[in-house]
Amino acid sequence: MRVVVIDYNGGNLASAAQAARRAAALRGLEADIAISRNEADILAADRLILPGQGAFADCAKGLDEGALRPLLEKATAEGAPFLGICVGMQLMAQYGLEHGRTEGLGWIDGHIAPMDDSTRQGFRLPHMGWNTLSFTPGAHPLTEGLEPGNHGYFVHSYALVDARAEETIATADYGMTIPAIVARGNRCGTQFHVEKSQDVGLTILGNFLTWQPG
Fold first, then answer.
1. I want to staple 96 with a disulfide (CB 3.0 to 4.6 A). Which of 15, 56, 123, 194 is the partner?
2. What is the pLDDT of residues 44-94, one digit of tens each?
3. With the CA atoms of 89, 91, 94 and 98 taken in that order, what torsion angle do they form, in degrees rounded to the nearest 10?
4. CB atoms within 10 A of CB 214
5. What's the average model confidence in pLDDT over 4-14?
6. Preceding peptide of 51 cis, ω within 30°
7. Do 56 and 159 touch, CB atoms closer than 8 A?
8. Model-level pTM greater than 0.70?
9. How many angstroms separate the CA atoms of 126 and 157, rounded?
């Protein structure tokens, strides 16, 4: 299995790749996991992972400067499963409002907006730390082996709003309902950092590596 962690001058590339290697080993999978922005690598990959750390606009700029948007579009349109992590998940949305409006990949409905501190009864921003995940067991292969109430590790001040219920696999609560795992077709993402979420994150990564989208 060839897995490419997309190199677009974003953060957490090495830790995401290392977590994917660990998840593959735990599942007994033979996986070649590389960090690359090379066109041939991306188009030949069996799985794609897009980590994200920082601002939506900066990460989107990294995709554009690396001419990576059309490559990701082509590879995933041809069936390669895709996992976005944190801002990598946010980039799947229609657009983001961090540092002005910036167009996303448009793979899921909704947009990325600031979490409004005034309506959240004193919840501090950024939303940082462990939070429980709410989901329907068995509703999606990504959550196989998990239980509602398991924890993911979040670091963000912006979140997906106006998401479609059928594309929202799991949520978290932080004074508002936060889409925590989203998926449409062979494209999925987690708002929380799977590479920092210990056994829960490794389970989700392992599920992603064995996922066969219908």
1. 56
2. 999 999 998 889 999 999 999 989 999 999 999 999 999 999 999 999 999
3. 110
4. 5
5. 87
6. no
7. no
8. yes
9. 5
**From the candidates 111, 127, 156, 193, which is the catalytic residue?**
193
Annotation marks residue 59 as catalytic = no
**Annotated catalytic residue within 59, 86, 140, 156:** 86
Spatial CA neighbour of 140 closest among 176, 170, 172: 170
Catalytic site includes residue 99: no
Query: What sign has the CA pseudo-torsion 207, 152, 85, 36?
Result: negative
- Which residue in the list 59, 111, 127, 195 is annotated as catalytic? 195
CA separation (Å) from 107 to 122, 186, 201? 33, 10, 23
Structure tokens at 161: 């709003």
Residue 66, amino acid? G
For the beta sheet containing 32-36, the strands, ordered from the edge strand earlier in sequence to the opposite edge, are 32-36, 2-6, 47-50, 82-85, 187-190, 177-184, 168-173, 134-135
Please say if 86 is a catalytic residue.
yes
